[in-house]
Amino acid sequence: MLTDVRSAMKGLFFPQEQGCPICGRRGSQRHICQICLEEWAELADGFLPCAKCGRFKKAEAGETTCQECRENEPPYAIARCVAPYDGSLRDALHSFKFSGRRELAYPLGELIASLVASLFPYRLLAAVIPVPLHENRLQERGFNQALLLAEVVNRMLRIPLVPNALIRSRETHSQTSLSREQRHSNLKGAFEAGEDALPLQGKAVLLADDVYTTGATVQECSKALINAGVKEIYVAALAAGILTSP
Ligand SMILES: [Zn+2]
Ligand SMILES: [Zn+2]
């Protein structure tokens, strides 16, 4: 009993300092600390983001866009991410999505918001739209990680959140074991623009996701929005893959 009172008092008079949500270092007040951010930035050393899709490609390759974007130009305007999908960022995204660490949405979402503010004409964006999760997956996980991230972007940058602009019209197989072509055909027609996309005709929007891997998902989402009359799509994700091809 005494111990309970003591610990309660301790909490009362000396509130526990909140450290970095990734490494636990003190002093960062729930934001991701500078040391973690530098570590993530170093993962991109020697690489440059493809000017179109934002995936990391060898810096000395000469071309500003990656081979894939040159061969099949994605339908969105531009995609960017915070850092390569590797190291403690990959671990953090795993615990956010699969171990239910929902509290990571805020510090991670903040990073997407500052990426958007520094790279995109964010004041012109009429909506932030999360990549939708199929109902079954949503029930399994309990939340859509892209929606939680989009909520933070909405709060920080005051871009209106339109969560139902896109609807997942059918469930798709897991993408992990599929080739690039298979991923694209697996997702064909998997997304539709909902009624909430109607007021976005002729406007520019932000599409938010956690990871940009092959880009098949955001490309299909972009097509659905463009078919519904959306003029321009900017894509922001936390992490993107490193390309082995130039
Ligand atoms: Zn840290
Ligand atoms: Zn590219």
| Shape designation | globular
| Number of continuous helical runs | 9
The level of helicity is 25-40%
Beginning-to-end CA distance, first to last residue: 65 Å
Structural class: alpha/beta
The CATH level-2 architecture is identified as 3-Layer(aba) Sandwich
CATH class: Alpha Beta
Which ligands, by name, code or SMILES, are bound?
A: zinc ion
What count of domains describes the coordinates? 1
Overall average residue pLDDT: 90
Counted beta strands: 8
Give the C-alpha Rg.
19 Å
Uncertain regions: pLDDT < 50 for 5+ in a row?
A: none
Describe this structure in words.
With 246 residues, the chain is α/β, with parallel strands linked by helices. It has one domain: Rossmann fold (3-Layer(aba) Sandwich), CATH 3.40.50.2020. The chain is 38% helix and 17% strand. It has nine helices and eight strands. A four-stranded parallel β-sheet has the order 3-8-7-4, sandwiched between helices. The chain has a two-stranded antiparallel sheet with strand order 1-2. Strands 5-6 form a two-stranded antiparallel ribbon. Strand 1 and strand 2 form a beta hairpin. The chain is globular and about 60 Å long.
